[in-house]
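Let's practice the habit of predicting before peeking. Look at the sequence and jot down your guess about where helices and strands might fall. Then scroll down.
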Amino acid sequence: MSQRQKSLIGGISILGLAGLICKVVGVLYRIPLAHLIDPMGMAIYHKVFPAYNLLLTISSAGIPVAISRMVSHYITKEEPDNARRIFRVALYLLCALGLITTVLLMAFSGSVASWQGTEDATAGYLCIAPSLFFVCAMSAYRGYMQGQRHMMPTAISQLIEQVGKVAVALPLAALGMAKGGVAWGAAGALLGSTLGEAAALLYMMWQHRRKKGSLDAITQRENAELLSGKSISRQLVLVAIPITLGACIVPLAGFIDSVMLTQLMEGAGMAKDDALIRYGAYAGPVLTLINVPTALAMAMSTNLVPSIASGVAKEDRAYVARETGTGLRMASVIGFPCSIGMSILAQPILFLCYRGSYTAAQLNVAAELLQISSLTIVLFTMVQATSGVLQGLGKQKIPMYTLLLGVVLKIALNYSLVRIPGVDIHGAPWASLLCYTASMIPNLYFICRHTDYRFDWMGAAVKPLLASLVMGGAVWAIWHFLFGDAENLSRFVLILGIVLCVGVGVVLYALAAWKMGAVGKDDLPARLRRKFK
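Done guessing? Here is the structure:
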């Protein structure tokens, strides 16, 4: 493997860039989709995803991380034959899990839709169900390559998913809308997602065949014991179960939200359609935009697991502490400016993307939600980074318990706030803030307890925050004094204003972070470091 593939920063940049592109495409995709299937169709579309994401997480979240960690461990110990055996066993397990969850979702699609109070979502569940199998099988290939620090195939497969979704889902949504109304329009869009996952799986299978000999360069250590299928299965299950349970907690909270929020608003006296549209605005435009920068957090977590596992295998505590510090500092460097910038530009971004799909009043409510929800970005980024470190250390049960604590608090605060007239849906983002804060703090404590790392307040918190505040002050002043209320601006002026604010913000933040020492030359990808020389 090359130095670039071994680099934590290089891996984050590859997956992070691909993830950002995918998230931006996902946001842009939803703009014409919202025009095609109307707010009610979007509400049905977003009712399907929480239950789907929960089953997807159960079936595919833990084992890929376990594969990545175990493959990295055995490659570091010069046992490539065991790395290959791990992949084969994991592929069988994931294909079986994917098939089971696909059948379960198809069998109980009507019951789940009825439980959510949206019977029209049944067709959508049937259309999205086969993608569970495709994603599960693909996860085995991704985990195997990530364990070898080959991040590019995963990145390209993510792009294929999104391109396939846009190319196929929009025509299918239009066809469904013409044939059967909003419910079938939403189902057509979901079927497009399934076909995109199938295309990405075919690509990963091709990449696996193409890179099949990449481990041949590593000489098998003499007298290395070959693992049995039973031993590998046991290790995979022991590592994967707590990771899977931990990963299920947030999708479970999203599924509970899909049931809980609309019922609480209706219980407070709001009409059912109004409650459903408000939920759709929150689960759709708001959470979709929040998920754009979190792609970098997922890339960071994905890279940290094999990196930390490699240090543990070598028993190099200094390396583990150094990689941990880099990961947590980069989480803050990414999270703080994204949180502050999106909060300031919440109204113009929403009016640019969704004017015509939602009324001005609905978009103003969504902007209020996004201003609060944006603050969860830095917390989520830090939770993902700390979870990746703990999973790489073999302490995968800890993030499971801390996320469970956070979700319990989130549900309790949801129940307390959303049912209050006048607060209603606005209580949901405050509950999410509490959830991620309650998860992050104990994660940091246990990292410091189990490694030689000591939290660097200046480097990992104060300096990135100060640089973000410099950026945020400039962006707020530009928008406030030059543009004003987004509701009264044309689309051209909105584009001009957002481009100007983002451009100035990026330059100011980069300069401030560099001058304050929040980032240094060693944090740049290898290609940029060479240019600095």
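How did you do? The chain has a mean pLDDT of 80.
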